């Protein structure tokens, strides 16, 4: 029985081990023959042959356990030296502790052109280990990320839904958006007009993105309208100084909601002409969560 597995040439030494050590061990353990066979300039075949099904099966399992499992992620270039340590001692300790091989590449190795390249947050750290040890990959990543300051931690993206009809107004305030991006080290990406999408993406360091999203939503105005049948007492209250000083001020301070009283309008309801008071509550998207409390507070004062 024979099984062929195709693998990239760069992993040849990884699977075979030093002086073919790993492969020789498997051959003696499970009584199979393993041959590395050239396939083309990029890949090669691992040929596993055995006389008995069970022996071949266990030999194949052992070979698959030696296959490379890898994980790659981004660490800003300025931290590489700190993580590698003098003469590589830090990284050697981590590699020994978890039996994982770690390789860093910087902008120069990637052929990038300075800052622009780093904006795209390329995965510049790769950790590789045999499949049997793959559970250690996340532990290595965690240990490396712990050595990076919070500001530059793992990059994440958050999607914010904003009515696309409002995107143009936001883009017109690009200078403010650029300030915000600088402040939180984040990037705000609007969808292209062809996509007709409402989703704006905010990407940046894990700890900064929620703060950037909050400030960005602070640029998005929203409003909520309330209407009541008018009465003389209500009209008197809405124009009183008590309403202005007590209710409006509190709404502004506690809930960050502004209220404008519109002129009463004549409306016909059930064939009756009645006067309707209109209140317009305006706020920004990041404070929308407090709207219900603000409305409750306002109604409790009426």
TrEMBL record:
Record's keyword annotation contains Metal-binding: no
Name of the protein: K Homology domain-containing protein
Keywords: Repeat, RNA-binding
Top-level taxon of the source organism: Eukaryota
Coiled coil: none
Occurrences of domain K Homology (ranges): 67-149, 154-221
InterPro entries listed in its UniProt record: KH_dom, KH_dom_type_1, KH_dom_type_1_sf
């Amino acid at each position: 029985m024979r099984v062929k597995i195709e693998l990239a040439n760069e992993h040849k030494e990884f699977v075979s081990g030093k002086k073919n050590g790993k492969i020789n061990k498997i051959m003696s353990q499970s009584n199979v023959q393993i041959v590395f066979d050239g396939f083309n300039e990029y890949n090669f075949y691992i040929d596993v042959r055995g006389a008995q099904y069970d022996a071949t099966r266990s030999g194949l399992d052992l070979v698959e356990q030696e296959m490379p499992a890898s994980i790659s992620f981004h660490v800003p270039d300025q931290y590489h030296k700190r993580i590698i340590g003098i003469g590589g001692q830090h990284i050697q300790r981590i590699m020994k502790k978890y039996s994982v091989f770690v390789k860093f590449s910087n902008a120069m190795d990637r052929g990038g052109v300075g800052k622009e390249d780093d904006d795209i947050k390329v995965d510049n750290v790769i950790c590789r280990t045999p499949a049997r040890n793959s559970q250690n990959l996340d532990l290595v990543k965690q240990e490396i990320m712990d050595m990076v300051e919070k500001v530059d931690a793992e990059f994440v993206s958050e999607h914010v839904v904003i009515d696309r009809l409002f995107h143009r107004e936001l883009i017109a305030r690009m200078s403010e958006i650029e300030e915000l991006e600088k402040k939180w080290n984040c990037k705000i990406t609007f969808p292209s007009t062809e996509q007709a999408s409402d989703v704006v993406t905010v990407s940046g360091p894990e700890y900064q993105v929620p703060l950037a999203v909050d400030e960005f939503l602070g640029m998005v105005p929203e409003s909520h309208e309330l209407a009541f049948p008018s009465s003389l007492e209500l009209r008197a209250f809405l124009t009183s100084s008590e309403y202005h000083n007590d209710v409006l001020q509190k709404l502004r301070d506690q809930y960050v909601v502004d209220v404008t009283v519109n002129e009463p309008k004549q409306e016909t309801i059930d064939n009756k002409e009645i006067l309707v008071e209109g209140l317009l509550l305006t706020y920004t998207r990041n404070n929308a969560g407090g709207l219900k409390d603000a409305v409750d507070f306002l109604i409790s004062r009426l």
